[in-house]
Structure formats: structure tokens, C-alpha cells
Specification:
The protein is of the alpha+beta class. It has 16 helices and 14 strands. Helix 5 runs antiparallel to helix 6.
């Protein structure tokens, strides 16, 4: 569907703009597209029309198979990236089970006995029964660690609950006053941050600013204490409570982490407002670069490797770590953060090719540069912002076990990628 068609629906259904809860009522069958794309997101964001963007994303989501009351096929794009409903992985189902148990405690403390009873009687038993049927990873080599549901699994009711929006709560419900305060740390000097991004000489009189932000080379900057503490707590709450974690990776190929995406549930107004405030605070960096995409990942604490070497199709990558304080075990050789290489893909390279053939990238691009990189250690409420075309990967990590202790990151992509031309060269090496 075109942006114009979405806007027409928005105009015709203007009364629905303040639609907040995705499953407040059974959606009618209409002309909404099955999925929003990055151009739709950027179009709304270019005018800071966050109400319209949220309205579009929420209504598309409500009409999808994530809604327990809707019977339809998921878009193939969601299935292909690991968000299907006929297969899972052991670590993904363990995550969902841990979240279900966490929610039961939350419902009981919030005096919601009916919700607690539903999860205790329906959701948890189904997850536990299916988990008991999943063979060990070495028995799933053909599927790279994925497990297809069996007739027995379906008899346990897994089809009614797996990868469904079983519980969705908004920032407005958790904290009705969140819009009254800024989302970003008021002590940060974003003028200085932008100067550092561009490699300009900076002599800041703001000592706290100097301690909270650093730039090892132009186009890469680390910002500590990015979010206001109330914002950090509220976004953490959303990521722990909402059942919008639909993506599983093939663990034998890509590791163990679950994903949530802006076009598949991850579009609470506070997240869209966060993108807007970042964009407004850094006009020099963000000029012409509108929000394109957003995701969040939660990593299995029983694993130690995250996302493989890759580059993202965007101009600016904003990566924020939202893990709990004290969850990172901070062991030697396990920085838990991000390795950003100073090399970009060549202008002639195809995005899909270099993001799936990491050995080629290592040999043709990273080896000649002696693997020059900036390694940034994990720290809660730390942001790593960098030129999104730079190759990067998750550093090895060790986190405490337990649902609330997992490594969590939120990533926002702005603008279009600028690849390296034959006349460009970048150097740099360091650790932060």
C-alpha cells in the first residue's frame, strides 16, 4: 500500500487517531496494508506526526495474526525473519515461559486475578509441555536449531498463544504523566556531542558532559546516562511486560536472542517520542535523516555471543543498552557491549551479499585494515551512536540468569546508508 492510501484511511477514519490499545475491540476488515515499511515510517516522522504514525502502526498490528481474536496468515516477511507461529527454538520458548511467570507475579501484585489465572492455567502449561518435546540442539542441525510444532504440541493449545499479543500495556497506562518530563538526560550538552561527532575541536566547560560523552573518531560517539532515570525505568517496564517478542533466530547460525520490531508491535508512543527528541536535539547529525526503523533485542544469559558482523542500511545508528544495573557480570574478556569496525562496505557491494557473507567481509575489508575497531563496553543507559554503514557486532557477554537480568538493547535507525567511496579511508583503534 502507498503512503497516500494510508493517509486517505487516516483522514477518513480520523476519529480513530487516538486509538491506544491495539486489541481494545475486534478490528473491522478494511484496506490497511499487512505491514508498514520504512518509507511509511519516515514519511510520518518527517513531519513529526507521531500521532499519525502510532495510529497507522497500531491499526495494522491490531489487524494482524498477533491479535488473538484475528484468524489470518502472517505476512511472509515476518515469517522469514523468524516471527512465524508454526516453529520456535528452545531458548525463545524458555524466554516466553519466563515472561509468562513474571507476568503472573505482576498480575497478582496488581490485583488482576483473572489474567493471572489465564496465564497459570493456559499459557504456562502449554509452554512447559512443548518445551519438554524439543530435542537438544545437536538433534536439530538440519533446521539450524529451529523446532517445528507437532500435532502433540498443537493439542496443548500452542497455536492459540505462541507469538500472540497476550498482554499489551502502554507507557500511558504505566505512567500517565510521562509526557510532562523530557525523556533525555537534561545534563547532556548536545551541541558538544554534535561537535564531537564531526571531529571538531571541543573545549567544553561542562565537566559532567565531558564525563558522559566521548568520541574515539568522527562518526562514532558514546553517550553515558542518555535517558532520564524515569524514562529508563518506564521503557524497561514496557520491554519486560509486553508480549511483543516474536522473533527467534536460528541458534546454530546466529546465536540466541529474541527480537521485537516497530512494524510488529514495538511502537509505543514513548518510543516514537524518544526518536523525535533524539532527532530534535542533534539537528546537525540528523539533518535529512528521518526515523527509518527500530528494534529491540533480548539476549539469552546462557549464551555468550550476540549479533554477528554486519552493517545496517541507514545513515545513523543509535544503540541504547537498557539492561538492569548489576546484571552484567563484568568478567574479563566479556565486555558485553559493541565492536564497531572502522570499515564501511564498498559502494559497489550488495547489501544482502555482504551481510550474509561475513568471511568475505573479514578477508576483503577488515583484514587489510588490521581489524581496526572501537570496542565499547556494556553499561546500562549507555548509548553508542555511529555511522550505520560501519561494520559492527556484539561483543562477548556474560549476564546473570533470570528473566529481568538479560542483556537488552534498543536500536533506532535514521536515514539512508552512505557507503565508502574509493577516496575514503578511516583509521582508528581503541576501547571505551
Amino acid at each position: 500500500m502507498t503512503i497516500e492510501a494510508l493517509l486517505l484511511i487516516l483522514i477518513v477514519c480520523g476519529a480513530a487517531v487516538l486509538f491506544v490499545h491495539p486489541f481494545a475491540s475486534p478490528p473491522v476488515d478494511d484496506d490497511f496494508p499487512p505491514l508498514a515499511d520504512s518509507s511509511d515510517i519516515s514519511y510520518f516522522f518527517a513531519n513529526y506526526d507521531l500521532v499519525g504514525l502510532h495510529w497507522a502502526l497500531t491499526n495494522i498490528f491490531a489487524r494482524s495474526a498477533r491479535n488473538p481474536s484475528v484468524s489470518k496468515e502472517l505476512p511472509q516477511e515476518l515469517v522469514a525473519r523468524g516471527g512465524g507461529v508454526s516453529y520456535t527454538s528452545e531458548y525463545k520458548l524458555k524466554h516466553d515461559l519466563a515472561q509468562a511467570k513474571y507476568l503472573v507475579n505482576y498480575f497478582k501484585s496488581s490485583n488482576e486475578p483473572e489474567r493471572a489465572a489465564y496465564f497459570e492455567s493456559k499459557v504456562i502449561p502449554a509452554y512447559e509441555s512443548v518445551l519438554a518435546n524439543i530435542p537438544p540442539l545437536n538433534k536439530l542441525e538440519k533446521t539450524k536449531g529451529l523446532y517445528a510444532f507437532t500435532k502433540e504440541d498443537y493439542s496443548h493449545g500452542i497455536v492459540d498463544i505462541y507469538n500472540k499479543g497476550l498482554f499489551m500495556i502502554s507507557a500511558d497506562e504505566l505512567d500517565p504523566n510521562w509526557r510532562q518530563y523530557g525523556l533525555l538526560n537534561k545534563q547532556l550538552n548536545f551541541d558538544t556531542i554534535q561537535q564531537q561527532w564531526f571531529g571538531e575541536n571541543v573545549h567544553s566547560e561542562n565537566e559532567e558532559m565531558s564525563a558522559d560523552a566521548s568520541s574515539p573518531l568522527p562518526g562514532v560517539i558514546v553517550i553515558d546516562n542518555l535517558l532520564d532515570q524515569r524514562t529508563l525505568s518506564l521503557i524497561r517496564d514496557l520491554l519486560l511486560k509486553n508480549t511483543w517478542w516474536y522473533q527467534t533466530k536460528t541458534p546454530l547460525e546466529f546465536g540466541k536472542y529474541v527480537g521485537s520490531y516497530i512494524d510488529d508491535g514495538l511502537h509505543d508512543p514513548i518510543l516514537l517520542e524518544l526518536a523525535k527528541e533524539l532527532h530534535e536535539k542533534m539537528p546537525r547529525i540528523m539533518s535529512g535523516h528521518y526515523l527509518k526503523y527500530m528494534w529491540a533485542y533480548k539476549y539469552d544469559s546462557e549464551w555468550e555471543s550476540g549479533i554477528n558482523l554486519h552493517a545496517d542500511e541507514a545513515a545513523v545508528n543509535v544503540n541504547i543498552w537498557l539492561s538492569m544495573e548489576g546484571a552484567d557480570l563484568q568478567e574479563d574478556d566479556f565486555g558485553g557491549g559493541l565492536i564497531v569496525y572502522t570499515a564501511k562496505p564498498k559502494d559497489s557491494w550488495d547489501f544482502k551479499s555482504y551481510n550474509t557473507n561475513t568471511e568475505f567481509v573479514r578477508k576483503e575489508l577488515l583484514e587489510p585494515s588490521n581489524f581496526a575497531n572501537i570496542t565499547v563496553k556494556h553499561q546500562p543507559n549507555r548509548c553508542v551512536m555511529f555511522d550505520s554503514a560501519l561494520f559492527h557486532q556484539t561483543d562477548k557477554y556474560r549476564f546473570k540468569k533470570g528473566y529481568e537480568n538479560g542483556r537488552i538493547n534498543l536500536t533506532l535507525l535514521f536515514g539512508e546508508m552512505r557507503k565508502e567511496t574509493s577516496t575514503e579511508a578511516r583509521t582508528g583503534q581503541g576501547e571505551l
